[in-house]
């Protein structure tokens, strides 16, 4: 198939189909996208590799998609008269993990249809339902597809009935494909052409294009990905960003197929990229509308809703001189990941750093890893925590994103964020899942049987309870069969306290935490025990205490290193030995009053990161 077709400009909108693939993590989205690339001929056989659209090393190592990737595919379909018609298809491969739902919601804005992919050996999972509801909210055409039908454990008939029950179609309407072997993929592309409506827009109106993604290129500056809604965008003309009013000259306009290819412009319904040579990353905001500087549109397109950070954590450079580099790195990464938020903060123990907001623990972990790999930074991240709203005795309100901002004195009311969780699991595990959720202060909201053997549980849980090891505990209790999805559900009144960790009477802000009153003792004990192992012994005894206000709830002692001052005494009078021991005792006492406990950097890393990595999702 000739690739010249893909490079033609201003394709007739009736010949365009914009669609994305949505599914739960590890249900084969990227593998199916690989087969589509091969089948349409945009990637040569010798250049093909698994997970072709996953460009980052982390994505390839972990086998998960983090960034939604768009690609333009040519396809031919015979019409009713048997004549082959050319079509242009824009495919967006989306992530499947709950932490990257924001990427999925942005991809859905650029499409008219969605392929709902379900593993024929596992059936519908929590994130499948969440993504399906997102697509239905946007009025997208849903094409239900069962993948991995070649697996020995596949049960297509059973799961086709399950999908049909949820989507509202007949079981025989559910397509059956294998992304691995390529069976049924051509038929799926034909169905996309038949079912997905073509984009609607006015080609004669002033240009309007929605920015749905952008990346930073060291040599070319900001590369902006857009979907054209009205008019056309051509190179060498001046464009305007409608939210900031900034104008730039377009140096290059092109399409991604699957490598960037410059074209003579983009028309209605087309998806492509723009390069203006701008190096300032704040000039290209995801969700902004691009129009022409002269005779441009006056009404911007409705943008995306701003993502709400769920988890906050401090990121600090190990070497303080790397602070400006960390700021630049976060600027560039935010361009690539619009869900990341950050603001500067300082810590007595860790120096200058940034308070970053993330959509979840995996998002936090991936961000830290990308900063370390792509920008060569050495970082410490503090314990993740959520945002609290504290009402003081005088009626003033205070928002707390960090334990060190916790107000002194008595608080009248403390509110914590809560989330609605959907857990889908085999029915045999209902008891252990309920036990886990109740131990995390959860309230059961409802329970439905999707089939005879699979059940959906809906719980309301405090956000703080699920950001640590909830996912791990859920997987271990259900032998890996349960799937979890959650969304914000407001806030609730709670009995919370701030636990301080004191070293020789001085609070170390990096180790403080806000916890529920019932689990304060457990946290204090655990932290004191951990620090006893991590902090090296000093010349004097060091008490490690956990305290709520002025009340001590846990204590451990680091014993002093004792020099043998009697080594030089062999024989002689006992009073001489006693004199030396008294002298040593006086020295230790003086050292204890003026000595400072040096906490090595490794102790901070070990004490804080061991908790941050507790929620690594398992496949």
From TrEMBL:
<dbReference type="InterPro" id="IPR004161">
    <property type="entry name" value="EFTu-like_2"/>
</dbReference>
<dbReference type="InterPro" id="IPR035647">
    <property type="entry name" value="EFG_III/V"/>
</dbReference>
<dbReference type="GO" id="GO:0005525">
    <property type="term" value="F:GTP binding"/>
</dbReference>
<keyword id="KW-0378">Hydrolase</keyword>
<dbReference type="InterPro" id="IPR005225">
    <property type="entry name" value="Small_GTP-bd"/>
</dbReference>
<keyword id="KW-0251">Elongation factor</keyword>
<dbReference type="Pfam" id="PF00009">
    <property type="entry name" value="GTP_EFTU"/>
</dbReference>
<dbReference type="InterPro" id="IPR006297">
    <property type="entry name" value="EF-4"/>
</dbReference>
<dbReference type="GO" id="GO:0003924">
    <property type="term" value="F:GTPase activity"/>
</dbReference>
<dbReference type="InterPro" id="IPR000795">
    <property type="entry name" value="T_Tr_GTP-bd_dom"/>
</dbReference>
<protein>
    <recommendedName>
        <fullName>Elongation factor 4</fullName>
        <ecNumber>3.6.5.n1</ecNumber>
    </recommendedName>
</protein>
<dbReference type="GO" id="GO:0003746">
    <property type="term" value="F:translation elongation factor activity"/>
</dbReference>
<dbReference type="InterPro" id="IPR035654">
    <property type="entry name" value="LepA_IV"/>
</dbReference>
<dbReference type="InterPro" id="IPR000640">
    <property type="entry name" value="EFG_V-like"/>
</dbReference>
<dbReference type="InterPro" id="IPR009000">
    <property type="entry name" value="Transl_B-barrel_sf"/>
</dbReference>
<dbReference type="GO" id="GO:0045727">
    <property type="term" value="P:positive regulation of translation"/>
</dbReference>
<dbReference type="InterPro" id="IPR013842">
    <property type="entry name" value="LepA_CTD"/>
</dbReference>
<keyword id="KW-0547">Nucleotide-binding</keyword>
<keyword id="KW-0342">GTP-binding</keyword>
<dbReference type="GO" id="GO:0043022">
    <property type="term" value="F:ribosome binding"/>
</dbReference>
<dbReference type="InterPro" id="IPR038363">
    <property type="entry name" value="LepA_C_sf"/>
</dbReference>
<dbReference type="Pfam" id="PF00679">
    <property type="entry name" value="EFG_C"/>
</dbReference>
<dbReference type="InterPro" id="IPR031157">
    <property type="entry name" value="G_TR_CS"/>
</dbReference>
<comment type="similarity">
    <text>Belongs to the TRAFAC class translation factor GTPase superfamily. Classic translation factor GTPase family. LepA subfamily.</text>
</comment>
<keyword id="KW-0472">Membrane</keyword>
<feature type="domain" description="Tr-type G">
    <location>
        <begin position="14"/>
        <end position="200"/>
    </location>
</feature>
<dbReference type="Pfam" id="PF03144">
    <property type="entry name" value="GTP_EFTU_D2"/>
</dbReference>
<dbReference type="GO" id="GO:0005886">
    <property type="term" value="C:plasma membrane"/>
</dbReference>
<keyword id="KW-1003">Cell membrane</keyword>
<feature type="binding site">
    <location>
        <begin position="26"/>
        <end position="31"/>
    </location>
    <ligand>
        <name>GTP</name>
    </ligand>
</feature>
<keyword id="KW-0648">Protein biosynthesis</keyword>
<dbReference type="Pfam" id="PF06421">
    <property type="entry name" value="LepA_C"/>
</dbReference>
<comment type="function">
    <text>Required for accurate and efficient protein synthesis under certain stress conditions. May act as a fidelity factor of the translation reaction, by catalyzing a one-codon backward translocation of tRNAs on improperly translocated ribosomes. Back-translocation proceeds from a post-translocation (POST) complex to a pre-translocation (PRE) complex, thus giving elongation factor G a second chance to translocate the tRNAs correctly. Binds to ribosomes in a GTP-dependent manner.</text>
</comment>
<feature type="binding site">
    <location>
        <begin position="147"/>
        <end position="150"/>
    </location>
    <ligand>
        <name>GTP</name>
    </ligand>
</feature>
<comment type="similarity">
    <text>Belongs to the GTP-binding elongation factor family. LepA subfamily.</text>
</comment>
<dbReference type="InterPro" id="IPR027417">
    <property type="entry name" value="P-loop_NTPase"/>
</dbReference>
